[in-house]
Write a structure and sequence with these properties.
Elements (H helix, E strand, L loop, with lengths): L4 H11 L2 E4 L2 E4 L3 H13 L9 H12 L5 H13 L1 H20 L3 E4 L18 E6 L4 H4 L2 E5 L6 H15 L5 E4 L5 H11 L4 E4 L14 H9 L3 E4 L9 H14 L2 E4 L7 H11 L3 E5 L13 H7 L5 E3 L2 H14 L11
Parallel strand pairs: 5-6, 5-9, 6-7, 7-8, 9-10, 10-11
Antiparallel strand pairs: 1-2, 3-4, 4-8
Helix pairs in contact: 1-5, 3-4, 7-8, 7-13, 10-11
Length: about 350
Amino acid sequence: MIYSVTDIMMFSLISNDITTQNKYSKPIINQEFLYSFFDYTLKNQINIFSEKRLVRREIIKEFSSNISKRINSEILEKIFLDDVLYYEKLKKQSQIQLDTCQSLNINFEVITSKNYPKNLLSLKYPPYFIFYKGILPSDLEFGNSLTIVGTRIPNEFHAENITKTILESICHTNPIIISGLALGCDSIAHSAALNLSLKTGAVLGQGLATSIYPEKNTHLSETILDSGGFLISEIPPTLKINPMYLKLRNRIQVSLGKIIFIMQTSEKGGTMHSVKYALQQHKNIFVWNPSGALNKENNCVKGNYNLLETNNFFSIKDSNDFNEKLKIINKKKLEYTFQLFPN
């Protein structure tokens, strides 16, 4: 292995290091750019941390020669060449994160390990680590998974009804139900799965050594683990919740699911980030069609109506509709070599 686990943890810490400007959080370096550099060193059998300073400079110069975003190259040079204090802090923090995993029984898979979820490797910048509690499904199990996302402020009656009936119609196939543990649609999805004794997993935007957010769902997270499910995060264990982390976790929950179901969504917000990531990954996206139940004036489904005006999504009225759309996908074998939720 070119990089040790400690080395890769340093990349993870850099990727998740944030700065705040005008109340908005953003990474200190473009994450796709950083991953490209990491991938470049792997392919060239280079451990950037073990090279002498002059050699590191030449490596960065060679990598950056065809990169137009000069500002990221300058940040790269600062991290790996100029800022000695930051570099030393990284090494110290890396060990702290690994020690925390050991002391709190937080499991992990590193990007170079054979058990790392293969779905995540298709992302533009895959997580360097996947930290988890509970039982992480295999790639085969993730092949029969449904990611459910939606607003934190849904019409609960309709959200609970459509989720319950859809999961009841496919529960005999034992799908894994993935969501994000947020209030609203996420909680409804996890709870519906638990009520049907289905395995469910929550993708979090925080380190697993920090207090569960939202606090109200602490018990739900414990129930998920007690039922044989899992909590998963790309964020190093001691790092607390952050708006940027919440946004980034959307790409993880979308990537892990084979089908994406948009329960209810407003015109803006986290669900729309999930939609963007799902489109980028060419996922089959199912959207609840609220016509006849909720009109366009209801903020919680304005996004549903907008999405369904395009041809990029499957319109879902009820569980029968859901299963008919699955048959279409299975018949066409869109991107799959096996049947999803086979009868």
